[in-house]
Amino acid sequence: MKLDIAISNPETKQRLDIDLPAKYGVIEDALLRLNCDETISASGRILDGYERGIVAFYFEKCNVFELNYLASTIENFDYDESSQFIGGYFIMDQKEPMDVHKAINLAMNIQSNNLVVSQPAMDEYDLAKFYLENDLIPEIAGINDEVYDWIVDHTDLQSLGEEICQKENGTFISSDYVTKEELENLYEGDMRMPENENYIFQLEVGLQTEPKNDKRYTIQLPTSNAEFRQMMKDFAVTDVAGLRCYQFASIVPQLQNMDFGMEDIETLNELAASIYCFKELNELNTYKAMVDATQSVNLETAHNLCEYVDEFTLQPKDRSYADYGRSRFQNVLPDELLECLDTEDYGRKIAEKNGVSMTSYGVLVPRDGVPLMEKLTQPKVVQSQGVKMEQSM
After folding, report:
1. Mapping DSSP to helix (H, G, I), strand (E, B) and coil, where does residue 219 land?
2. Of 112, 136, 158, which closes a domain?
3. CA–CA separation, 255 vs 265, rounded Å?
4. For the segment 101-132, what is each residue's pLDDT rounded down to a tens digit?
């Protein structure tokens, strides 16, 4: 099961689509784009993976990490567990609106085999037949075949099934009938946080022409020359051209699909070292905004951007031209007068004049007034902050 949702800032109503469970860096980046803390509103669907039931939900002012914990808890539910969760959710939601705490507790009860019972039944008619055939109605349990046939012939099985369903507070999920039993209080808010990635890039490396199921080597950048040498030794190659990257992950979402080859590993490592420095100096968000402001990013562009980070200021509170225009008059004009001005048109004009770029992270302001794209057309000689790899690589 997975959560396919849109999260929003409860104050600004900004929205962002995201799939959960997700890594820490993905969630952190989403909160940065929304300009909010861990408190979000979320609407979306819980997909069971078997193309059967879908739970639609809306949680107001919930914790995004708790929502991620819910997603990680139900992620590996099998067919029966998915039926139980969807059925239990529907039953509970009919009584009072569900929230993240209740949903997590529901999932944890299912993990402990402590929540619901599933019976094979498509509808109320099937349910009544199943209960009769399996002696599940105490008043007529143990009857012989002749009496059973008479009851079946003279009973409105549809009505009987509806009565059973109402009495047991049950519901139908695809081909399963689900009833909710008493829940234990298993969730006290002690959620498991996703791990904070300690890398900038992570690569899963294998041979260029590897046999099926051959070994893979996971390497995290930035790294040392020694680890590169060890990786090549393990693969018994003398040239990185004999290797291939099969999986790539980045804490900078815009670089996730960046094209590069193993022959670029030195430059990639230098880029990782530079971004790591930005992270340590609290400049990572500025770099992300710079990447976001470019039309398309390849390894060379991503590398060149590092040289200009200290020449820009990110204003995360300004998420539109209207915000930027209004900020120019902050503490100068009263709010009542600001509301009467066309701050969006003014903000757009002054942004163009000042070389400002509008990004998902806020406005990016060049300190010298030169727009980012103009700087990139006249790149400086890059003096990398990264670790230069030895010629032997």
Report:
1. strand
2. 112
3. 15
4. 999 999 999 888 766 566 777 778 788 878 77
22 and 102 housed in the same domain: yes
* Helix-helix angle 284-293:265-280, to 10 degrees: 130
Q: Of 121-125, 194-198, 312-316, give the range with the top mean pLDDT.
A: 312-316
Q: CA–CA separation, 3 vs 107, rounded Å?
A: 14
Element (H, E) at 169: none
Please count the structural domains in the chain. 3
Strand order in the sheet with 201-207: 217-221, 201-207, 243-250
Q: Is residue 31 part of a domain?
A: yes
The CATH code of the domain that includes 158 is: 1.10.10
Tell me the per-residue pLDDT of 37-55, one tens digit each, with 9 for 90 and over: 999 999 998 887 776 667 8
Domain that holds residue 156: 117-180
Asked if residue 151 belongs to a domain, the reply is: yes
What ranges make up the beta strands (E) of the chain?
2-8, 15-20, 39-47, 54-63, 116-120, 170-173, 176-180, 201-207, 217-221, 243-250, 312-315, 357-359, 362-366
